[in-house]
Amino acid sequence: MRQNPGEAVLNLSDYRASTQEQDRTQDLLELMPATGSIALDIGARDGHFSLLMAERFEQVIALDLHKPNVNHLRVQCVEGNAARLDLPDASVDFVFCAEVLEHLCDDTLTAVCNELQRVCNGQLLIGVPYRQDIRVGRTTCYHCLGKNPPWGHVNRFDEHSLAERFPHFHIEKKSFVGHNADETNALSALLLDLAGNPYGTYEQEEGCIHCGRPLIPPPERNLGQKILTKAAYLARDTTALFNKPHANWIHVLFSKNDAARAVAPSVESRSTRAA
Fold first, then answer.
1. Adjacent-strand bridge partners of 173
2. What are phi and psi of 92, to 5 degrees?
3. pLDDT category of residue 3 using cuts at 50, 70 and 90
4. Would you say 253 and 173 are in contact if contact means Cβ atoms under 8 Å apart?
5. Which of 53, 94, 198, 245 is deepest in the core (most CB within 10 A)?
6. What is the rounded CA–CA span in Å between residue 159 and residue 202?
7. Which long-range contacts (CB under 8 A, 24 or more apart) does 143-148 make?
8. Buried b (16+ CB within 10 A) or exposed e, 75-90
9. C-alpha pair distances (Å), 220 with each of 197, 198, 224, 226, 229
């Protein structure tokens, strides 16, 4: 859903085969309904989850900014924008949205969450990084010199901030996958910015959030930048002992509130939003 022309291409086969990704996939499948009529896969990419959902649902709508290529009788591939879904109110039984919301700027995030609520008349499964410190792994774009969060993650979530995004739903189940203690502090982040962020996530497929161009590896550091880098890691070590491990991901299964389900149209009609 997030790739732009010219970006690096993630090897999805290797990614899917990793232990942490298999654990994440298994956890998401355990939260999904076993059967259903119509499901919507937001940010379908290669259709990995769309195909898994096709084993449970009569119809799966695989949606992405670029039309997915999924060959399955039950999967309908759609090119579209999750902030402006071309679907009627309350028309989908189950909505699946993982590894998407953390990439969206605030206005788009609000629009997408509203649309997911509008079209969903049953359950909504959200997967995002949990309490991620998006200063860790920050990069510098060497086209525009803008500072970028790792992997294009511009949002930080926990169960409370997610619940606030979906007020017409309640949390039915939640689970946590993996663990880490990757945190930094303001001083260390500033020093690494000054050093050019030499150890950021430059292998990511997401481009610069400022200019949109692909990230390129930083040039060789000068002596001053090497000193700043060393100072940054010393500053980070001063608070590392106080970091508490937390999950890598949070998965939340939301169910639509009965009061919202009874109202037609749900959440907000397309004609109201267009006014």
1. 253
2. -120, 135
3. very low
4. yes
5. 53
6. 29
7. 143/208, 143/211, 143/213, 143/216, 144/208, 144/210, 144/211, 144/213, 146/208, 146/209, 146/210, 146/211, 147/193, 147/197, 148/200, 148/208, 148/209, 148/210, 148/215
8. bbbbebebeebebebb
9. 11, 9, 12, 10, 13
CA dihedral 227, 230, 235, 236 (to 10 degrees): 150
The Cα–Cα gap between 250 and 245 comes to: 14
Higher pLDDT, 15 or 141: 141
Non-local (6+) Cβ contacts of 211 within 8 A are 141, 143, 144, 146
Phi, psi of 213 (to 5 degrees): -80, 155
In a 13 Å sphere around the CA of 102, the CA atoms on its Cβ side amount to 24
Domains in the chain with CATH codes:
12-274 (3.40.50.150)
Residues 6 or more apart in contact with residue 234 via CB below 8 angstroms: none
Alpha carbons 59 and 37: distance in angstroms, whole number:
6
Cβ atoms of residues 91 and 76 within 8 Å? no
What's residue 272's pLDDT? 33
Segments in 42-196 forming alpha helices (H): 48-54, 106-119, 159-165, 186-194
DSSP 154: -
For β-strands 139-140 and 120-129, DSSP reports them as: unpaired
- Position 2, amino acid: R
CA 199 distance to own-chain centroid: 22
pTM exceeds cut of 0.85: yes
264 neighbors 196 (Cβ within 8 angstroms) = no
